[in-house]
Amino acid sequence: MATPVLQTNKLSITNRKNNKQLLHGLDLTVHKGEMLGLVGESGSGKSLTASAIMGLLPKGLFINQGTIYVEGEEIQQLHPRQYQRLRGKKLGMIFQDYNGSLTPFYSIGKQMIETIRTHQSCSKQEANERVVEFLERVKLPAQRVFSSYPFELSGGQKQRVAIAMVMMLKPSLLIADEPTTALDVLTGERILDLIKELQSDLGCGVLFITHHISDVLKRADQVAVLYGGHRVEYGEMKRIKQHPKHPFTELLLQSQPSIGNQLERLPVIPGEPGQISTAGCPFVHRCPNRLERCNVEALRETVFAENHRACCHLYDQKESKGYVSEVN
Questions:
Q1: Which DSSP helix (H) or strand (E) runs through 15?
Q2: pLDDT digits (tens, 9 = 90+) for 236-257
Q3: Using the 8-state DSSP alphabet, how is residue 115 labeled?
Q4: What are phi and psi of 107, to 5 degrees?
Q5: 301 by DSSP, 3-state: which?
Q6: Strand pairing partners for 206?
Q7: Strand 205-210 to strand 173-177: parallel, antiparallel, or no bridges (unpaired)?
Q8: Cα Rg of the chain (Å, integer)
């Protein structure tokens, strides 16, 4: 099998100030042309994972264990200047706040030309042509947007510009960190469809970070579910959609609104978001199916068919088989 564009092995992140571990031994793999959806509630470690891959961890946080590989190259120990060259060329990222990707005092065209010429050797004319091409590819009126300033564009247009700035460098891996957070639902759907279309055209791998599992089920090939910094479930999108194994995943799926849902109220996940146990299973205080052992025993991973994996004590003993129902 070809070398993955991204692979993390036992990636763990700690807060130096209080020695609190925020991410626990995370394994992820993204291949060329594949989209991996990283799903979880706020504070589960999704954006932290993206920051670690990009070499942009906030001050005070550090990788205390594990490795990150991009196209087979170990990168977490790179010098900042080496990392800077890696961004854009191999790593691209679309942030939640698209305004942070744009400088308000320069035209869109000037910013995009400067971005290309910073990372690639080309003439100003060649850069100009590339900018126009990618503004068109993200379905914007290229000539008008080229000469516009950020304040003259809508939120959806600015997010499309941010996508064009990243994709015109043709990175091996695109990280999309909740790219629709500040957009209305319809515009957000169009942005996600656009990312999927560009991925198909350019053949890059995509790490798609979101707390909306419905967005992942529509577009991702693989799904990783995080809770409290732990990967609690991992596998092919179709299999997780039809046969979730971890109670948290099952509850996420059940809480999706749908047109055909005749229930007066949608099911909700018990407890408070971000309630994480420091012993046993991190989800134990909110889990409706918990066992006594879940309070004290560390997580152990069970492998099901087609490399579908889940960390849940319900599968550690014979009498618990079938305890978690399957969602059809």
A1: strand 6-15
A2: 999 999 999 999 999 999 887 7
A3: H
A4: -65, 160
A5: strand
A6: 35, 174
A7: parallel
A8: 21
Return d(Cα 32, Cα 236) in angstroms, integer.
Answer: 16
Count of other CB atoms within 10 angstroms of residue 100: 9
Q: How sure is the predictor about 258, in pLDDT bands with cuts at 50, 70 and 90?
A: low
Residues 6 or more apart whose CB falls under 8 angstroms from that of 209 comprise: 38, 46, 47, 49, 50, 175, 176, 177, 178
Alpha helices for 175-236 (secondary structure H):
185-202, 213-219
8-state DSSP, 289: T
Look up residue 284 and give its amino acid: V
The residue among 239, 315, 314, 230 whose CA lies nearest residue 277 is 230
- Of the candidates 172, 153, 173, the residue with the CA atom closest to the CA atom of residue 98: 153
Structure token digits, residue 95: 């942030």
For 123-166, how does the pLDDT look when each residue is reduced to its tens digit (9 = 90+)? 889 999 999 999 999 999 999 999 999 999 998 899 999 999 99
Query: Judging by beta carbons within 10 Å of its beta carbon (0-12, 13-18, 19+), is residue 2 exposed, middle or buried?
Result: exposed
Rounded to two decimals, what is the model's pTM?
0.90
- The whole-angstrom distance between residue 268's C-alpha and the CA centroid of its chain comes to 23
- Positive or negative, the CA dihedral 185, 186, 190, 193 is positive
Distance CA 288, CA 316 (A): 17
Residue at token pair 């679309």: 94
Single-letter residue type at 168: M
Residue 92's H or E segment, with its range, is strand 91-94
Q: Give CA–CA dist 308/300, Å, rounded.
A: 14
